[in-house]
Structures are given as structure tokens and as C-alpha cells.
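Example record

Each entry pairs one chain with its bound ligand, calcium ion.
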Amino acid sequence: MTYNRRKFLTFLGKAGIGAAVLPHAFLACNTATKNTKNNGTSAGGSFDFKGLEPSTDDELKLANGLRYRPIIKWNTPINDQDTFGYNNDFTCFLPLDSQNPKDGLLWVNHEYVNSLFVSGYDRHDKEQKRSIAQVDKEMYNVGGSIIRIQQNAAGHWNLVENDAFNRRITAKTPIEFNWDVPIKGAREAIGTLSNCSGGITPWNTFLSCEENYDNCFGETMYDQENVPSHMPSSYGWEQFYDYPPEHYGWVVEIEPLTGSAQKHVALGRFAHECCTLVSLKDKRVVAYSGDDKNDEHLYKFIASKPESLKEGTLYVASLEKGQWLALDWDKHPVLQQRFDNQTEVLIRAREAAKLLGATPLNRPEDIEIDPVTGAIFVSLTNNKKRGDYHGSILKIEEAGGRYDALRFTSSTYKAGGEETGFSCPDNLAFDQVGNLWMTSDMSGSAMNKPDNAYTNFKNNSLFVIPRYGDRAGEVIRVANAPSDAELTGPWFAPDGDTLFLSVQHPGEQTTDLTAPTSLWPFDNDGIPKSAVVAIQGPLLGYLRALPTKESNS
Ligand code: FEO
Ligand code: CA
Ligand code: CA
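C-alpha cells for the complex follow.
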């Protein structure tokens, strides 16, 4: 590949490298950090860098050289009206003032609810019916939060309570479609939901992705004759609110200072895990997004105008052909036979992708761009029906190193399994020098059961794959999640010395409120809670300062 490092100062991702969204002051700061002389003692104290063994303990366990403090947890008041939502996932930090990286806004996704804790509805009780009050509580607890956080003199990050920028966006918030024709008869949707991972734009707004939207208002299915029918949701919200499924499954953009939001139809509708943007020289963006379901696809949108997420073309990947296929109604008779127009192609992107021969993938989840080589890394979590229990990381290299190319090559960067020590990769984040951080997402129903494919991996974890030094390319476990939890939303602070991380769904397998399967974070009320934590410690600086010899990986 012919990417040069300088060029990468213009790309965007969730890595907190975020060079293009950070002012030069921060870039200088990052460079200084990288050059810090290091012998295991940088950034505050010595330690013995060892990976962790798998664990079944109900705690957030960190490797030597790391420590954590919670910033906020479920139900914490953020102002006089609002509380922090449930099951925090994607996080994204933006300083309010480019001269002060210690004060800014943190966006946090709230993916879904465990109704037993949130509304009291017990899904295991087949006699029980949800009430509208329960549904309203559930709808309030998904979406996202904007919270102002500040770092104090001791380096601790704290919520600024009642700050004017603190706000919630929920499944009740009206959100306009960024499109010229109505979607199912409406210019706006009510609410955002199933907000899993996300991204950031070059113009400093947050992107939040609606993933398993069919859980909430179901889905419209089409038979071979193209006759629609309603597939009911698992939550049954459509029994109380008659909102069309077509209003969900989009990428949502949120303006940090005002909270105003829009849904981007041009990026297609599917179970968007994430949305990772790259800015081209002429300020057009390319947006990568995966559809997290067995045998679904990898997409990219190439804008035709600067800074637009509306004008452009959506493509889907054929790995066999090494080609991006345009989901363009005008160009493909096979799409014209099935759909009335381009808007319908975008709403039913999954079907359109299959008609064009897109490659089925093993649950494409998070996507990040390597700050050193420019290659695109895609987590493929698993596909048990196809015998892939542990997943892998797919590497895509665009032809000529051009993100707007229509041809690419692909290869497996790392495969999960006992040999590499990880299973079910999900979120990815590169730090400033290109160490790759990765979280795992083994499902709660399969984890820590005797004699299955996941037994030896124990709790979900956070891993780092160092880029340089003696252990370059090795997958090293650096955090173990509490019982039933998953670690999500890794995002580096501008100086690289804090890793924001979500601890999602501790105690998810609980069936009896008096006997939760986790008590993390050990509040006195006996209820497990998702929380966002700040991870700090000398290991972060140590990894950034390893001798800069490229790994062979
Ligand atoms: Fe919400 Fe695909 O993880
Ligand atoms: Ca995820
Ligand atoms: Ca996942």
C-alpha cells in the first residue's frame, strides 16, 4: 500500500487519534507522548507488564499498569429532569475548547434495556403483559446521553452535574430524516433506539448507529412476490405506538452543543453496528459500516459533495470480486424489478445487497482504520451456523490506498480461538501509534457454561495487540469484565492517557431480582448497573513508547 503517514493526519476514526478533529495543539501533544522515554515508568509509576488470565470473577479486573474509576452509571441524574440511560455502549469525547482537552462533552450510546431492571417487566413470565408505563420507561432508557466531563488536578474525570450541555436523546425524541422524500409518509421519526457503536464526523458531530432495531418495532418482511408482512418485535412496543419499522435502522448524527439530530437515509438501512468516516482531500467523506447479523454485509458510502452524508452512492462489498457494488437503482435492472425507486433500495438495503451478489459475512461489527498503514479493520464476531465460533478480524486494503476506490483486496488479520486467546471480537480502537485495542462479545447465554466453545475464555475481555516491541502482534488480555458483562465503546482522550470504556450489561442473565448474577459496580441497592469508566495508568504510555519497529503482523 502506498499510504503515507502524513496523509493519515486527515483521517477520522474512533481511535481518539481523531487527528483531523483535533487542533494542532493536540497533535503536538500526541507526538510528545509518543516520544516519551519509557522503561515501564512513564505516566506515573513502574509496573510489571503481564497479560491477565481469563477470569470468572464479578469485577472489572485490569492488568498491571492500569486502574479505573467510574464516571457515570445507569440512572445517575445528569440534570434536574434527566437520568443516564441503560446499557451504555459507544463513547466519543470532544473537548469544548481546543485549548483545553480536559473539559468536554462525552456522547454515550444506550443500546437496549433489560426490562427486569428498567421497567419491572419479566420476560420469563409468560402470563405478564407489558403496560404502557413500562414501555415508556424502556423507551426513555435507550438512545444516548451527552454529558459534560472534566478532568481535575488529580487526573480524575468527573461528571459536571446539571451542566447546560447535559441532555438525553431517547426513543421519544423527534428526529428528522436527511432526505428529500418522506420515509413511510413522514419527514421525521420518533426516537432513536438500539444505539450500538458509532463514529465521529470531520465537522465534529457524533454518529450513533441503530443496530437491532427490529427488537423494538419489528420489521417489514417481503415474500417472493414482494408482498409485505409485519414481523413482530420482541419488546412489543408497536402494540402501544404505531411507529413504522422503516423509521429505524439508520445512522443518526447528533450536534454536540444543541443535541439536534438527523437520520441519514443515504447510508442505508440495516443493523448498523458502527459508522467510521474518512475525509478525502477534497473534503468528501467515505463512510464504512457493517451490518451485524449472520451472513449480512459490509457497506461503504462515497460522498459526491464535500461534507455531505446525503449526496453520494452507497456500495456493498463483494470479497470474491474484490469490488464495491453500487446500490444504485438507475444502474441495475435487478433492483428495478424488485424496488420502486432508490429510496426503497436504501430502506431495504439488505435485500438489494443480496440481489447484487454481496458477500455474506460472519457478523461484521466494528470498523477502524489503521493510523500507520491506512488499512481498514473489520471485526467479524462469529457465525455459529457456519461453524465459526470465535470470529476474526478482516483487513481490507483499498486499491491504490484510495478510500474512494471501487476495488480492494481482503485478508484475515487475526482469527479468534484458543491459539490467539480471544473469541468474538467486537469493538476496535487504535491508539496514537497504532496499537490495536479490541473488546470481545461472547453472548451471555453461552459464556461460562461447561464444555462449550467458550468455556476456557471465561468472562468477556479487553485485549491489546501491541504494534512494536518484543510482543508485537501478540493478543494480550488487559481487562476482564464483571459477570455477564461486555466491555464496549473504547475511546481515547486527546492526550491518550485515558481510555474511556463502557461496562455493559453486568448481571444480564439475572432472572430473579433478589438474586442478581452480578452486583457490579457494588452499589448498596444490590442492583448491577452499566457504567462508563475512565481507565488510566502507566501501561497506556508504555505501549505508546515501545521501540518503533514495525511488527510483521
Ligand atoms: Fe450491539 Fe453488534 O453489537
Ligand atoms: Ca457492538
Ligand atoms: Ca456485539
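Residues 148 and 160 are 6 Å apart (CA to CA).
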